Amino acid sequence: MKKNAKRFSAFILTLVSGSNWQGNVPTNVGTATGNAPTLNADYGVVTSAALTTAAGGTATITVANSFVKAKSVVSVAISGGTNTAGTPLIASAIPSAGSLVINIYNAHATAAFNGTLAVSFNVLDSE
To answer: What is the pTM for the complete model shown?
Structure first.
C-alpha cells in the first residue's frame, strides 16, 4: 500500500471510530470559491462554498489538481463542514487529467443543505 493510502485509511478510521489517534491526518487543505478549488496534492480536504442544494438535488465541486489523471483511482468522503440539514452522500467522484469532479447528492426527502461540506480525497495512483 502506498504511503499516502495508509495516511488516508488512518484518517477515515479516526472519523469512523472517534478515537484520539494522532497520526498523519491530511494537512493539505483547500477552500472552495464557487465550488472550484485548486489543490495540487495527492490527498487533502476541500470545503465547499455554502450550499443550499434542495432535497433530491446534487451539488458539484470541481477540484483542479495536477496529481489527478484520467484513469486515477480516487477515494472521497464527506468529513465535516457547517451543514446541519439534508443528507449528503457522495454520488460520484470523476477523475480527468488535472481535475476531479465530486458530485454530492442530497438524499433527504424534504430538507435542503444549509452550509458548507468538507470533503476529504485521496488520489491513490498519483505517482
So the answer is: 0.77
**Grid coordinates 478515537 are at which residue?**
19
Domains of the chain, residue spans: 3-123
pLDDT digits (tens, 9 = 90+) for 73-95: 999 999 889 999 999 999 999 99
Integer Cα distance of 105 and 88 in angstroms: 6
The CATH code that applies to domain 3-123 is 2.60.40
Is the model's pLDDT at 126 over the cut of 90? Answer: no
Task: Please give the single-letter amino acid code of residue 48.
Answer: S
Q: Which residues of 88-102 are buried (b: 16+ CB within 10 A; e: fewer)?
A: bebeebbbeeebbeb
**CA atoms of 1 and 126, how far apart (whole Å):** 13
